[in-house]
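User: Just a sanity check before I run the rest of the batch. Below are the structure tokens for the first item. I only need the designed sequence back.
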């Protein structure tokens, strides 16, 4: 009898773990720590140029106690799409989330749902950024949109939780995660915890406690900080992500008091003590040209790496809790980011491109007793593999339609006989912020091939001889066989992953729908959040300001709906406004008009002052004169200014954008004070102007002859940056 009792006690003892948890011994816990825009250069375990000036001891701890993966890549270097790939284990074209403005279909198969069915408790805390509510989680506590660094708000199934004064987002995410581990979960079940950080996403607002330390340092420059892009094609030469031009002195470099409304008084005081001094020095010195680029880089690195410091510190707090509670013994800890990030390489910041700094993401894994400490893994892996990996660790069946491979064998130190020799990449979002052209491509251990299919331009890089990707060898006879092989590999991966063929873009056809053509111009979130402003049949929602010299002909004669188009008849001037108002948005439409001497365009952020018939707001010119230029209605030109040299330069640059014989695609993006306009996929204007902050969309025609035609008018509201 005593022997039987002893046997039972031993068996029970095998189920008891530290902290009073009762778990099946073979059921492993998973903690997935996920950051936003974290370059591998900013983790000292990777040995990059910043390792001595900005060490990350706690992230290094994961690598030192486990595995550092040197060749982890993403399938689509953008925040939301990367997250959707991880949720589904499928490429963007299959999970339906190709761009940040799309809305994730949470009804589809995801790994958290499978974990739940398999007996796991699941929790998601921090950044979500997929538009819809999370599914498959016992607890979710997420940041609205991008979230804020200071006094962050959180969304829960019960509603919004207001931000706490004095709280910092990175610390808040970890505090909530540990609180759930301590008392919010069912300790009889294994768990999957996703710790999703906002940091170090733009605009890089560090905690005040690190400001003095990081603003006092000098950061090594990348060797290609002053890249001239001569060794690459149109996409690298026409992007909009340079420190020199795109990085905003006021916002990115904190030359104005920025977003201090969420700081408490003490934080605001400490912040201004540091940045007021920086502002004073730069205004006195007034660096120009390359010196200004260098100054921007130093300021950028100070803010970015101070955010990383807080992130690293939070990782240490979480690791310490796992160790002290005894959970570490049975918990796999995985650290990764949604993509890499340019830290001045090529003179850039941001991501999106298939170049290495954007394509590679850090991946660090700790699995006590299994993952050999200090291991460096060189296999080619991807965020496409994460869903399968989580399920495999949990001992659950992996659905056959997931497209990656489980990394569990690599975590266990195995060397699979057959592993992938190349990875596939696809970026869809153009025209969009930073003006990176749509492209797909393939990378193997030595070579990388990219196809910018809208332009039918190719780039091929020999990464062994040219690791910084400064010169494409696509046209080199020496690489003819390599090119043939890589094109064959690209074709093979497109087929393997069921990638639809690229659309054949012809003059006059819309450039806006991504590859594959995603949705229609119909109302509703099912089309990625796009709202139609014209139903193609009626003028519902549109109005004329009223009888005045501006509207000298009757409404029923000046405007008609013909074959799914709005037609504005010739008149001295005619203006129509939509009833809805918008602040931050992307507006897209198509328009056609005959060549004429006119002043016509698309109004935005327009309001009609009381007792007036002429709206106030902005107008984007759509003509063969200043195509995509911006006018302040009733005041005068904003861009180009009324200076002949500026007008001449603008016309010289944009003169070929407008198609006088066919349909023209127009895109207007407003976010905060930043206004951008595109005509036929070409960036016309990119300015800062906060004169008008909210208002309606308008259609204006001022000509003596010809019909001004509009169709496919749609808008998508944006989150504040």
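Assistant: Here's the designed sequence for the first item:
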């Amino acid at each position: 009898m005593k022997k039987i009792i002893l046997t039972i006690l031993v068996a029970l003892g095998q189920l008891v773990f530290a902290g009073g948890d009762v778990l099946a011994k073979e059921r492993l816990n998973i903690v997935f720590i996920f950051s936003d825009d974290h370059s591998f250069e900013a983790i000292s375990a990777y040995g990059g140029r910043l390792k001595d000036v900005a060490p990350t001891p706690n992230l290094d701890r994961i690598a030192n106690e486990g595995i550092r993966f040197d060749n982890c890549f993403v399938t689509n270097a953008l925040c939301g799409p990367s997250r959707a790939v991880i949720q589904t284990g499928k490429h963007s074209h299959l999970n339906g989330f190709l761009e940040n403005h799309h809305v994730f279909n949470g009804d589809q198969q995801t790994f958290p749902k499978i974990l739940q069915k398999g007996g796991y408790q699941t929790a998601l805390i921090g950044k979500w950024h997929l538009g819809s509510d999370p599914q498959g989680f016992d607890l979710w506590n997420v940041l609205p949109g991008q979230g804020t660094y200071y006094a962050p708000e959180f969304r829960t199934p019960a509603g919004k939780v207001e931000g706490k004064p004095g709280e910092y987002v990175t610390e808040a995410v970890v505090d909530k995660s540990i609180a759930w581990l301590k008392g919010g979960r069912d300790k009889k079940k294994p768990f999957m915890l996703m710790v999703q950080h906002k940091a170090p996403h733009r605009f890089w607002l560090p905690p005040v406690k690190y400001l003095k330390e990081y603003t006092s340092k000098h950061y090594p420059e990348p060797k290609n900080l002053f890249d001239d892009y001569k060794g690459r094609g149109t996409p690298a030469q026409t992007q909009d992500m340079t420190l020199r031009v795109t990085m905003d002195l006021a916002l990115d470099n904190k030359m104005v008091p920025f977003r201090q409304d969420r700081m408490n008084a003490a934080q605001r005081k400490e912040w201004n003590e540091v940045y007021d001094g920086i502002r004073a020095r730069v205004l006195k010195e007034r660096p120009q040209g390359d010196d200004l680029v260098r100054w921007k880089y130093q300021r950028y690195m100070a803010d970015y790496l101070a955010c990383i410091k807080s992130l690293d510190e939070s990782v240490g707090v979480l690791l310490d809790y796992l160790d002290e509670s005894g959970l570490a013994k049975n918990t796999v800890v995985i650290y990764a980011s949604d993509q890499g990030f340019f830290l001045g390489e090529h003179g850039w910041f941001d991501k999106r491109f298939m170049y290495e700094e954007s394509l590679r993401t850090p991946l660090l894994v700790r699995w006590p007793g299994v993952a050999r400490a200090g291991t460096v893994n060189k296999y080619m892996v991807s965020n496409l593999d994460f869903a399968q990996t989580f399920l495999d660790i949990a001992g659950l069946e992996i659905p056959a339609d997931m497209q990656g491979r489980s990394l569990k064998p690599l975590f266990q130190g195995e060397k699979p006989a057959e592993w992938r020799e190349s990875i596939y990449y696809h970026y869809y979002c153009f025209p969009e912020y930073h003006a990176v052209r749509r492209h797909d491509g393939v990378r193997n251990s030595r070579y990388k091939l990219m196809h910018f299919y809208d332009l039918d331009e190719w780039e091929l890089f020999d990464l062994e001889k040219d690791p910084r990707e400064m010169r494409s060898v696509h046209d080199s006879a020496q690489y003819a066989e390599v090119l043939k092989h890589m094109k064959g590999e690209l074709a093979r991966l497109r087929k393997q992953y069921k990638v639809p063929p690229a659309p054949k873009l012809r003059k006059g056809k819309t450039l806006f729908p991504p590859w594959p053509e995603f949705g229609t111009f119909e109302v509703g979130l099912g089309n990625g959040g796009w709202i139609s402003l014209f139903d193609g049949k009626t003028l519902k929602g549109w109005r004329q300001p009223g009888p005045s010299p501006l509207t000298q002909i009757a409404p029923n004669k000046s405007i008609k709906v013909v074959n799914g188009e709005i037609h504005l008849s010739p008149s001295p001037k005619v203006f129509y406004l939509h009833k809805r108002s918008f602040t931050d948005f992307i507006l897209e439409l198509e328009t056609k008009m005959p060549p004429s001497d006119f002043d016509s365009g698309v109004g935005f952020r327009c309001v009609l002052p009381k007792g007036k018939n002429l709206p106030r707001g902005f107008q984007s010119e759509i003509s063969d004169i200043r195509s995509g230029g911006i006018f302040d209605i009733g005041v005068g030109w904003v861009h180009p200014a009324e200076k002949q040299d500026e007008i001449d330069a603008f016309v010289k640059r944009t003169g070929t954008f407008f198609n006088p014989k066919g349909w023209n695609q127009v895109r207007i993006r407003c976010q905060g004070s930043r206004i951008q306009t595109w005509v036929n996929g070409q960036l016309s204007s990119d300015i800062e102007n906060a004169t008008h902050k909210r208002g309606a969309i308008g259609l204006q025609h001022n000509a003596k002859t010809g019909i001004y035609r509009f169709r496919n008018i749609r808008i998508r509201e944006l989150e504040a940056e």
